[in-house]
Design a protein that fits this description.
single chain, 103 residues, alpha+beta, YaeB-like fold, 29% strand, globular, RelE/ParE_toxin, TA_system_RelE-like_toxin, toxin-antitoxin system, RelE/ParE_toxin_dom_sf
């Protein structure tokens, strides 16, 4: 199976930017490792979108969640159809996920 075409919501782009910025204040090398791990996780999901677990949410039909490889405190929330992967959010486990997904 070929990889799905990947699209990110503006919120997901902001999430990743904020994650990298926050971590880079104390450890720039770690921030790059986390960014690379998020990217690798999204590529993996694009190849096998059923990997993630269903994450029911009233605003996002078919939402799924997959933990970021090597950094399981972060999760990618996404939707997939036969041709495309849509990354909705990338969130830290300490976040109020329900509120973040609703906002």
């Amino acid at each position: 199976m070929s990889a799905l075409r990947v699209h990110h919501s503006s919120a997901a782009d902001r999430d990743v930017g904020n994650i990298v910025l926050t971590i880079s204040r104390d450890n720039p090398a770690a921030a790059l490792r986390v960014a690379d791990a998020i990217d690798a996780t999204v590529r993996l999901i694009a190849k096998s979108p059923a990997l993630g677990e269903a994450y029911p949410h009233p605003r996002h039909a078919g939402l799924r969640r997959f933990l970021v490889n090597q950094f399981p405190n972060y999760a990618v929330y996404y939707q997939a159809d036969p041709n495309e992967l849509f990354v909705v959010r990338v969130l830290h486990a300490a976040r109020d996920v329900a509120s973040a997904l609703s906002g």
